[in-house]
Task: inverse folding
């Protein structure tokens, strides 16, 4: 189980940017958005009022044999309400429905420049710093900006 922080990183580079959502890596591709992702996304939207539920998505990255599959989802209004209220962490929670999300188009291109932020500690397991911590994420580890895509 990964527990996400209650606060988002703050940095001068982020002041004019809009959050697009979050990425969930998983070992297998699922036929639908996992109920745990519906719940997590709804709770993140609830905690971070600046996130636009119509525009913030969840991207799943599934490491299938010999490839990597990407799928993007956004919550429907009923999915947001169900996810906010859901307390059941089982694999098949009561009330979960495929009507709680819509698949959205995902466009991959080398024509846009973008950035991602990672802690400066060089670790690949960032959740190890987050689990059980009550400190804001930006106080746990220093953050640095790195280039993600370059323009052609």
Result:
């Amino acid at each position: 189980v990964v527990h996400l922080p209650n606060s988002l990183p703050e940095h001068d580079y982020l002041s004019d940017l809009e959050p697009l959502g979050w990425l969930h890596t998983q070992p297998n591709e699922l036929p639908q958005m996992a109920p745990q992702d519906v719940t997590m996304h709804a709770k993140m939207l609830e905690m971070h009022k600046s996130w636009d539920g119509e525009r913030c998505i969840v991207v799943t990255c599934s490491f299938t044999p010999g490839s990597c599959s990407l799928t993007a989802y956004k919550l429907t209004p009923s999915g947001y309400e169900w996810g906010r209220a859901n307390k059941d962490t089982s694999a098949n929670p009561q009330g979960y429905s495929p009507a709680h999300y819509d698949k959205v188009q995902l466009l991959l291109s080398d024509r846009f420049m973008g950035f991602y932020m990672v802690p400066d500690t060089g670790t690949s397991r960032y959740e190890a710093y987050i689990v059980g911590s009550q400190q804001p994420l930006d106080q746990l580890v220093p953050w640095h900006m790195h280039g993600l895509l370059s323009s052609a």
About this structure: The CA atoms of residues 21 and 57 lie 5 Å apart.
